[in-house]
Design goal:
ABC transporter transmembrane region fold, Rossmann fold, 3 domains, six-stranded mixed beta sheet, four-stranded antiparallel beta sheet, 19 helices, disordered N terminus, disordered C terminus
């Protein structure tokens, strides 16, 4: 069921990511908290008014001091009191801004994390197998972090600097038109220069962000395959490969930093120039009696305040565009439409007999290279059917299409006469219990992993399912039992233990359709014998689709369908197919059993197991 409380994003489909696309998302989230935004704006303006007002009174203060008239002491104390009050109000405005900003940013970031996570999970199976999981994880994290940096830059630097600059120019203009105009023109030139060079530096920052993501993706790939690296003595090779990625990042980073340093140099010259120019002009006007000593204090106070803010802007612009580059990587995903979508008004799948039919199904990864071509298969309600074929024949593809992990290019897949492309995806998958060849577990407790099949199940139901799948035995021997964490992807368990946990999860789900894709491939003979009864119990009253090369599983199916090159080439019972001289099933039987068995004899242990994961043949699915 779709969570109606979570907002998803899909903006300007097919267009490149622009600043306005990112702002559109961020601002829409900020406006969900209007009072916090209002407090932010008002407190920011209040801070700048306090910073602008204090130098005005200090100007009067130093003019009185310059007069060297002690009778003016009461007024001096009065000015000190006014400055104290202004400073306190400025401090209070800063506290309000800080409180509002922290609350607003934390709430928006939480929404961004949730929304980005939810939208990404709705992407297709193809989307995830084509990308590094570490890179996707980092993109979600950087997306929310980028909002924090951009919001801080705007709220704490850009807006205060803009308010202060306008105020300083205005006050100085009314004190002396010439000096005010000079400062105003200089401020405009300064800002335009920063914006211009920021645009020039944007490609450098984008290149650095891309290099950073590639480096993290490479690191994640190596860490997740550490065992393979060790087994194939690949430490030196991986170090060299990772070093190449790091070198690309280092060069991109250095180019960005060199550009930043050049900008800092130009800004320094501009600041020295305006400082000397205004002081020189002030001296000229002082000689003419148009300015007083206190005016020099006013000018220096405003210049120092303006310099501090403008220099902060330059630092923040660098962080701002870094944040923009980070956010753009995630917005690119948010703007990518979901490949597998519910049709408008899709209704839940209503199952009765659970009859499955593939009608003239075409499917391919590359045009001109079909995996399934006019594929037809009908599985009666309650029938137990096995798919057999060589590697790459299309067996596992059939299960993935039934679960609608991919959309077909032509034809229909029906369950009880309903086209699965027109029903709600979640309802389709709720009707199917799937046990894959290589089950992947969450890095959670064994109790949570089994309960994932029925998340509202009681502990007693989980325990019963574990016993039926014969994984209770090894779980009970663990020091923490069902509260044992299994490690990332379940690496702390053996292949057979992971598979039994996956079977327990399917038993707990108790869906009317059961799909077993090499569900016993990782089990030794003893473990397989333990769960065969459980599997047969699980199959009772269900429509079952099995992909397996274990003869003990295939022989007990109601019907066996042989697939070759994406088409059905033979079907029947085990005995019927063995009678077909020169047939593919007979060849597979000979490979596994080492020769024919008498019909009433038990088969020998297969000498060679037939590979079934045909998608491994397609590098784009890695």
């Amino acid at each position: 069921m779709q969570n109606s409380n979570v907002k998803t994003f899909n903006t300007s489909e097919g267009k490149p990511v622009r600043v306005r696309n990112i702002f559109k998302i961020y601002i829409s989230e900020m406006l969900k908290f209007p009072w916090l935004v209002t407090f932010l704006v008002v407190s920011t303006i209040g801070m700048q008014i306090a910073d602008l007002a204090a130098p005005i009174y200090l100007k009067r203060f130093f003019n009185l001091l310059a007069a060297n008239d002690t009778s003016q002491a009461p007024e001096l104390f009065w000015i000190v009191g006014i400055v104290a009050i202004i400073s306190f109000l400025g401090w209070l405005a800063r506290r309000v801004q800080a409180y509002s900003n922290m609350n607003m940013e934390s709430k928006v970031m939480a929404n961004l994390y949730s929304s980005a996570f939810y939208y990404m999970l709705k992407h297709s199976y193809r989307f995830f197998i084509s990308r590094f999981s570490g890179t996707l994880t980092r993109r979600v994290s950087k997306f929310a972090g980028a909002f924090e940096m951009m919001a801080d830059a705007i709220i704490q630097q850009f807006l205060p600097a803009a308010f202060f600059a306008v105020g300083a120019v205005t006050v100085l203009f009314f004190r002396n038109h010439t000096l005010g105009i000079i400062l105003g023109v200089w401020a405009v030139v300064f800002v335009i220069f920063q914006i211009y060079v920021a645009k020039l530096r944007r490609p450098l920052r984008a290149a650095r962000a891309e290099a950073d993501s590639r480096m993290i993706g490479s690191l994640s790939d190596a860490i997740s395959n550490q065992n393979t690296i060790a087994l194939f003595s690949g430490n030196e090779y991986e170090q060299g490969r990772f070093r190449e990625t790091v070198n690309v990042w280092q060069k991109a980073t250095l180019r960005t930093w060199n550009a930043d340093e050049l900008v800092w140099s130009v800004l320094g010259v501009l600041m020295v120039g305006i400082n000397i120019g205004l002081l020189y002009g002030a001296v000229i006007f002082w000689r003419k009696g148009l300015l007083m000593v206190g005016d020099f204090v006013l000018i220096q106070s405003y210049l120092l305040g303006l310099f501090e803010r403008l220099m902060s802007i330059n630092r923040e612009i660098r962080r701002f565009y870094n944040a923009f580059a980070d956010a753009a990587e995630m917005v690119e995903i948010l703007e990518e439409p979901h490949e597998i979508k519910n049709v408008p008004g899709a209704l839940p799948l209503e199952t009765s007999g659970c009859e499955i039919e593939f009608k003239n199904v075409d499917f391919y990864f590359y045009p001109g290279r079909p995996l399934l071509n006019k594929f037809n298969l009908k599985i009666k309600g309650g029938e137990k059917l096995a798919l057999v074929g060589t590697s790459g024949a299309g067996k596992s593809t059939v299960t993935k299409l039934l679960l609608r992990l991919f959309d077909i290019a032509g034809g229909e897949i029906l369950i009880d006469g309903e086209n699965i492309a027109k029903v709600a995806q979640d309802s389709l998958r709720e009707a199917i219990a799937f046990v894959p060849q290589e089950p992947i577990l969450f890095h959670r407790t064994l109790l949570e992993n089994i309960r994932y099949g029925k998340r509202e199940a009681s502990d007693e139901e989980v325990l019963e399912a574990a016993k039926k799948a014969h994984c209770h035995e090894f779980i009970a021997e663990l020091p923490e039992g069902y509260q044992t964490y299994v490690g990332e992807r379940g690496v702390k368990l053996s292949g057979g233990e992971r598979q039994r946990v996956a079977i327990a999860r399917a038993i707990l789900k108790n869906a009317p359709i059961l799909v077993l894709d090499e569900a016993t491939s990782s089990l030794d003979s003893e473990s397989e014998a333990l769960i065969q009864d459980a599997l047969h119990t699980l199959m009772e009253g269900k429509t079952v689709l099995v992909i397996a090369h274990r003869l003990s599983t295939i022989m007990k199916m109601d019907r066996i369908v042989v697939i070759e090159s994406g088409k059905v080439v033979a079907e029947g019972t085990h005995r019927e197919l063995l009678k077909q001289e020169g047939g593919l099933y007979q060849k597979l039987w000979n490979i596994q059993a080492g020769g024919f068995q008498e019909e009433d004899e038990e088969p020998e242990k297969p000498a060679v197991e037939v590979e079934t994961e045909e998608l491994a043949e397609h590098p784009e699915e890695k």
